[in-house]
Amino acid sequence: MTKVLTLILLLLSIDAIQGSEFTIREATIPEIQTAFKQNKLTSKDLVEFYIHEMQKLNPIYRAVIEVNPDAVHQAQKADEERKANAPKSRFGLHGIPILVKDNIATKDKLNTTAGSYALLKSVVPRDAGVVKKLRESGAIILGKASLSEWAHFRSSNAPSGWNARAKQAVNPYVASVDPCGSSTGSAISVATNMVTVSLGTETDGSILCPSSANSVVGIKPTLGLTSRAGVIPISPRQDTVGPMCRTVTDAVYVLDAIVGYDKNDEVETRKASKYIPHGGYLKHLKSGGLKGKRLGIVRDYPNFGFGNDTEILNKFKKHFMILRQNGATLVDNLEVPNYDYIMPMFLGEGIALSAEFKISLNAYLEELVASPVRSLADVIAFNKKFANVEKLKDYPQDIFLEAEKTNGIGELEKEALRNLTRASKLGFEKLMKENKLDALVTPYYGSTALAIGGYPGISVPAGYDKNGAPYGICFGGLKGSEPTLIEIAYGFEQATMVRKPPLIKD
Q1: Contacts of 484 (CB under 8 A, 6+ apart)
Q2: What is the pLDDT of residues 164-209, one digit of tens each?
Q3: Burial class (CB within 10 angstroms; exposed 0-12, middle 13-18, buried 19+) of 436
Q4: Would you please indicate which residues are annotated as catalytic (active-site) residues?
Q5: CATH 3.90.1300.10 spans which residues of the chain?
Q6: Contact between 337 and 431 (Cβ < 8 Å)
Q7: Angle subtended at Cα 139 by Cα 133 and Cα 144, rounded to the nearest 5 degrees
Q8: Which InterPro entries match (predicted)?
Q9: In this predicted structure, what is the pLDDT of residue 456?
Q10: Do 29 and 285 contact (CB within 8 A), yes or no?
Q11: Which of 47, 149, 276, 465 is least buried, going by the fewest C-beta atoms within 10 A?
C-alpha cells in the first residue's frame, strides 16, 4: 500500500470518527476513554489524528519541537493492552497522548534541549520523574512542546515563545498577542487540539501565564508535589511541573498521575507527599465546589491582585457575581499586610535565581551521559560561536552572563533568600490566614507571591477581550491546598463554560 493511499485512508477514518457522535477535537480524557471502551476509537487513531494536525498546524503556530517516532508503536501497544484488559489499561491516562515541554527529559529517541541547539544530541541518563510516572500510567509521550528558550531565562530581550530550534510560537487566538511565559508550546498545542494534554514547567508564571493567554487550564502545583528530577533547572526553590489542558477535569487526571515521591528529587517530594489526599484528586471534581469557599480579592495593591485598573475590574465583575451565586463568599478590598515593607524584598528574586541557576544547570549538565556542553560557561561560548547560525545575536544572552558572574550562595544571595522567605510569610501567608481564605482570586495568571513561596495556583479560562484575546482567572492558595483549589476552579469552570477553541481555517 502506498504512503499516499495510507494517508487517504487515515483521513477518511478520522472523518468517520469526527462525523459520529464522538468528536476527537475538544474531547476530554473521560470522553476519549469512553470511546475506547465502546470501540469507537483506538489510541492509534488518536495519535495519527494528532500527528496529522501537527503536520498541518505546527508550521503556523510553532508549538511542537519534535514528534516521537515511536508514538504510533506505543499507541498500538496501548490498544493491545486494552484488548487484553491488562491492569494498566484501567488507568485514566492509559492510551492518552501527551506532549511534554522540551526541558523535561525523556530517555527515548526525543531530544531534550530547552529549545537550544547547544543541547541537541545530548543524552539524558533517565526519564524525568514525571515522565516515568506518565509511562507507568500508560500515557503516550507524543513529543516535545516548544518553549521560550531555556525556559525564558537566557535573554531579557527575547519574546515569549521564541527558541532557536522552533522559532517564534504564535498565539492561536490573536497572532499579535504575547503567548506569554515559557510553557507556550504546551499551552498552544492543547488549545489548537494538536494533543490531548500537555506538561509545562514554572519558575515564575510560566504555567499560569501561557494558560491564561491561550485559553487553557494550568495547574501550578505546590513546590515538590511533582518531581523536578530530569527537568532542566532554574531554581530548585521555585521550579515546578504541572499540567496544561483544555479542562479542569483533564488537568486533574494528569496531576493525579504525576504527583508523589521521587528518590531523585527526594527532599522536596518527600516533604510535599503529605499533601496528597487519600484516593487522589479526582474526587474533588464535584458539583457545588464553590459553596462555602472564602475567596479573597485585593484591589489596591499591584502584584497581589486587580490593582486599580478599571478595565480589568469591569472584565471580572460578572465573574465575581457568578462566584457569589454559586455559594462562595467574596472577601473584597483586602489589604495586604506589610505591603510597603515586603515589596522591596521581591527584588531579591533575581539575585537568588541567578546564583541558583548557575549551580543547578552545571549539576544537570554534568550528569548527562553525553553533551556538547558541560557548564553554563560552555553554553555561553556555544551561543557566541553560533550566534549568526541561530540568529541569537538578535537576543543577547544577558541573563546567562549575569548568572555566570555569580559564585555560589554568598552573603548577598543569603540575604535575598531570607527576604523572599520573609516576604512570603508576612505577605501572602498572613493575608490568607488572617482572613481565613480558601483562595486568593487574581486576574490572568496570579501573583509573583505564588512563585517565590512555592504556593499552588490554578488558571481557568475567564473570557476574551474585544479583539478576541483570551484571559484567565487564577485561584491561588497555601501549600497543599490543591484539593480546595480544584473544587473552586472546577466550580467556576462548570458555572461559566467560557472556553472556546480558536478559529482555525482548514
Answers
A1: 284, 293, 438, 439, 477
A2: 999 999 999 999 999 999 999 999 999 999 999 999 999 999 999 9
A3: exposed
A4: 101, 182, 206
A5: 44-284
A6: yes
A7: 90
A8: Amidase_dom, AS_sf
A9: 98
A10: no
A11: 465
